[in-house]
Automatic annotation (TrEMBL):
This is Methionyl-tRNA formyltransferase, mitochondrial. Belongs to the Fmt family. The lineage of its organism: Eukaryota, Viridiplantae, Streptophyta, Embryophyta, Tracheophyta. Keywords: Protein biosynthesis, Transferase. Residues 238-347 form the Formyl transferase C-terminal domain. One of its GO terms (molecular function) is methionyl-tRNA formyltransferase activity. It comes from the Eukaryota. Its EC number is 2.1.2.9. CDD domains: FMT_core_Met-tRNA-FMT_N, Met_tRNA_FMT_C. Pfam families: Formyl_trans_C, Formyl_trans_N. InterPro entries: Fmt, Formyl_trans_C, Formyl_trans_C_sf, Formyl_transf_N, Formyl_transf_N_sf, Formyl_transferase-like_C_sf, Met-tRNA-FMT_C, Met-tRNA-FMT_N. It comes from Arabidopsis thaliana. Residues 37-190 form the Formyl transferase N-terminal domain.
Length: 355
C-alpha cells in the first residue's frame, strides 16, 4: 500500500510539473501534381521537428482521375503521398471546385491558421481566402510579376530566358498578383527542360517556404511583403495541344526552346516525308521530337535546304535564316524513343524531307 501510494504520488507530481504542450497551428496544404509532393514532404518534415509550431491538418487536391493510359482512376500524386504518410482519408479533400459549400464547411471546422498552395490547379474564391487566419500563400515558379498564370516555367523556357526563379506570395483574387514575401533567382541552363526545371524550382520554393513560415505565422510577413508592379507583369497562359507542332520556317533557337518548354506535355511534333527513290514512294511520318540543340558552325548547302541530313549523331533540320536544329532523339507513334542514329539507320538509305 505504501509503495502504491508512493508511485501514485510521484506520477501525479511529475505530471503537474510538466507544462502542457502548446497547441500546434493547423496548416492546410493545397497541391495536386508530382512537383507539389516535394512541398508537402518539406511541410511534413518541418511539422515533425521538436520545436515545430504547426501541423499539417489537411490536404486539398484535385479529384481522382484516369491515368496509366486511362485504365485506372487514381488519386492525385499529392493525395497518394498523404495517404502513404498516414494522413487519415477524411482529412484529404478533393472538391470539384474550391467554392463548394460542403467543402468550405469542412474546412472551417479545421480552423486553419494558414493555407499553402503549390500547383493546386483550382481558382480560390474570396470565401475560401477568408477562412485561414493568416490567409493563403502560394509557391509560384517564376520571378513575379513575370509569368503569371498556369504555365510559368514552360513559357519562360519558350522565351529562352537566361534566368528565372521562384516566388512566395500571398494569394489574392487577381491571378498571381499578391504581395511577394520572398523570391530567389537562378540562372537557366540552355539545355534544361521544363520537367527538370519545374521540379527544381518547387524544391527550392519549399526551402523558401520553411524559412519564411515563422514570419507568416507571427504576422510580420504581411508588413514586409512587397506589392507587385502590375506594369511589369507578363502572362503565362495554359498550353494548348495544337502548340506542339514545329514549323521549320522559324529559326533553330526558337524551335529548340519550344522543345525544352513542352517536354513532358504536350511534347513537340514534326511531320517529315520519307522518299524511296527506287520505287518513287513517299510516306509521311509524324515524329515526336524529344531532345535537340542549336547547330553551330555548320553551313547548310542550298541543295540541302529542304532535306534532313545526318551528321555526327544528329538529324540536321535546316531552319530559317541559315540556322539548323540538331535533333538527338525522336519517337514514332506507339514506339519507344530512340536516338537519331538508330532512326537514321532504320531509313535504310531512304531520303528524309521536311514537310
Amino acid at each position: 500500500m505504501i509503495l502504491r501510494r508512493f508511485i501514485c504520488y510521484n506520477a501525479s507530481s511529475t505530471v503537474s510539473s510538466i507544462a502542457p504542450s502548446p497547441k500546434k497551428k493547423p496548416l492546410i496544404f493545397l497541391g495536386s501534381p508530382q512537383v507539389s509532393v516535394s512541398v508537402l514532404e518539406a511541410l511534413f518534415n518541418a511539422s515533425n521537428a521538436p520545436n515545430s509550431s504547426f501541423e499539417v491538418a489537411g490536404i486539398v487536391t484535385q479529384p481522382p482521375s484516369r491515368r496509366d493510359r486511362g485504365k485506372k482512376v487514381l488519386p492525385s500524386p499529392v493525395a497518394q503521398y498523404a495517404l502513404d504518410k498516414g494522413l487519415p482519408s477524411d482529412l484529404i479533400f478533393s472538391p470539384e471546385k474550391a467554392g463548394d459549400e460542403a467543402f468550405l464547411s469542412a474546412l472551417r471546422e479545421l480552423q486553419p491558421e494558414l493555407c499553402i498552395t503549390a500547383a493546386y490547379g483550382n481558382i480560390l474564391p474570396t470565401k475560401f481566402l477568408k477562412i485561414p487566419v493568416h490567409g493563403a500563400v502560394n509557391i509560384h515558379p517564376s520571378l513575379l510579376p513575370l509569368y503569371r498564370g498556369a504555365a510559368p516555367v514552360q513559357r519562360a523556357l519558350q522565351d529562352g530566358v537566361p534566368e528565372t526563379g521562384v516566388s512566395l506570395a500571398f494569394t489574392v483574387r487577381k491571378l498571381d498578383a499578391g504581395p511577394v514575401i520572398a523570391s530567389k533567382r537562378f540562372q537557366v541552363d540552355d539545355l534544361i527542360k521544363a520537367p527538370e526545371l519545374l521540379s527544381f524550382l518547387f524544391s527550392e520554393g519549399s526551402n523558401l517556404l520553411i524559412r519564411e513560415l515563422p514570419s507568416i505565422f507571427d504576422g510580420s510577413a504581411k508588413s514586409k511583403a512587397a506589392p507587385q508592379d502590375d506594369s511589369k507583369a507578363t502572362l503565362a497562359p495554359k498550353i494548348a495541344p495544337d502548340e506542339a507542332w514545329l514549323s521549320f520556317d522559324q529559326e533553330a533557337f526558337v524551335l529548340h526552346n519550344k522543345v525544352r518548354a513542352f517536354a513532358g506535355w504536350p511534347g513537340t511534333r514534326a511531320k517529315v516525308v520519307v522518299l524511296d527513290e527506287k520505287s518513287g514512294q513517299q510516306n509521311v511520318l509524324e515524329l515526336k521530337i524529344m531532345s535537340t540543340r542549336v547547330c553551330k558552325d555548320l553551313e547548310i548547302q542550298d541543295s540541302e535546304q529542304d532535306y534532313v541530313t545526318f551528321k555526327k549523331g544528329s538529324l540536321i533540320f535546316p531552319c530559317r535564316g541559315g540556322t539548323a536544329l540538331e535533333v538527338l532523339e525522336v519517337q514514332l507513334p506507339g514506339k519507344k524513343a530512340i536516338n537519331a542514329a538508330a532512326f537514321w539507320n532504320g531509313l535504310r538509305g531512304q531520303k528524309l524531307k521536311k514537310l
